[in-house]
Specification:
This protein is mainly alpha-helical. The protein has one domain. The protein has helices at residues 3-15, 23-32, 38-53, 62-87. Helix 1 (3-15) packs across helix 2 and helix 3 packs antiparallel against helix 4 (62-87). It is globular, with a radius of gyration of 15 Å. The two termini are 24 Å apart.
Length: 111
């Protein structure tokens, strides 16, 4: 299974238990192929990080801990999507961070 397929499976599975907005809508757009841009994923990740930054680093409240764990998972999936969007193989007519089909010369250097 390709990295992008693995990410799609993970996002789809997590979407069944995590329905907070705007992550839930972003996940639907990612899975449908409507918006698989790195910029959108990165902006959402920054938004989630802002919310996480306002939370106390440690708490004894089980519910609060569960919410933090879910938000961290959403953040990790969103960051992974941004990376996949930026570094996935050349797309064929699909959406990517450039807003269209990437050519080999458009791919970022890795390393």
């Amino acid at each position: 299974m390709e990295m992008e397929q693995l990410l799609d499976v993970a996002i789809d599975a997590f979407r069944k238990i995590y329905t907070d907005e705007p992550w839930f809508s972003w996940a639907g757009a990612w899975l449908s192929g409507h918006d698989r841009t790195a910029a959108t994923a990165e902006n959402l990740a920054l938004s989630i990080e802002t919310v996480l930054g306002s939370q106390p680093p440690s708490t004894r409240d089980r519910r609060t801990n569960a919410v933090l764990i879910l938000r961290m998972t959403a953040l990790n999936l969103t960051r992974s999507a941004a990376m996949v969007s930026r570094f996935s193989p050349i797309s064929v007519g699909g959406n990517d961070h450039c807003g269209g089909t990437r050519r080999a010369r458009d791919r970022p250097e890795i390393g």
